[in-house]
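Homework help board

Subject: predicted structure for assignment chain

Our instructor gave us this sequence and asked us to write out the predicted structure in token form, then describe one feature. I got the tokens but I'm not sure how to describe them. Can anyone check?
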Amino acid sequence: MSGPARTRHLLIVDDDDRIRDLLKEYLARAGFRVTAAAGGAPARRLLGAMDFDLAVFDVMMPGEDGFSLTRWLRDQKPPAGRTPVLMLTAMGEAADRIEGLRLGADDYLAKPFEPEELLLRIEAILRRAQDRPAPGGPLSLGRCSFDPDRGELTCDGAPVRLTEAEVALLRLLARSPHVAVERLELARGAGDPSGRAVDVQVTRLRRKIEADPKAPRYLQTVRGVGYLLAPD
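My token output:
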């Protein structure tokens, strides 16, 4: 593992003591600093008091589930609100996975899983969070503006909250404005061979950027290829 990843601070939230302890031990041995919580209430306290580079939320927990916790986190101000989230779920339905992504999760992993796959997905998310394109200045998107260097979106002068996955997607598209980027190329970095996660992120971004998300002007679909960003 690379040097920077060894200093990264992870939050593990799972009500199963055995799984929580196993994940904490495995990820600590992989070089991460790991803090664990048994549910939503202690997780909220930790997220309010400490900075984390990534959070792993179990979906099925008594009391507050992972969906509710993710929704709450995305409503917080940065830096907490921008914390990447990986969801662990025993549910096999695509609709449940899509719901997590819609709420702002960056990736998901279905149980049972191999610890090595969890580690690889965590590393992939952290790489996307670190990604920085060559300086090029903010891009004008009508009433909105996206600064690839800072990873910041503003609309009507006010900051708009983005997930790390959304920032990574916009940065990839901003590298070649007005040029279509293949859907699977965008999905490859997200560890999502089907590309469905990218489609969900595009839908969310259009709601934030476009005057009419159903007739997008700036985040366009190129049929049979993928997506392009068309700044002014």
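Reply (TA_rk): Your tokens look well-formed. For the description, you could write something like this. The CA atoms of residues 13 and 193 lie 26 Å apart. That's the kind of observation they're looking for.
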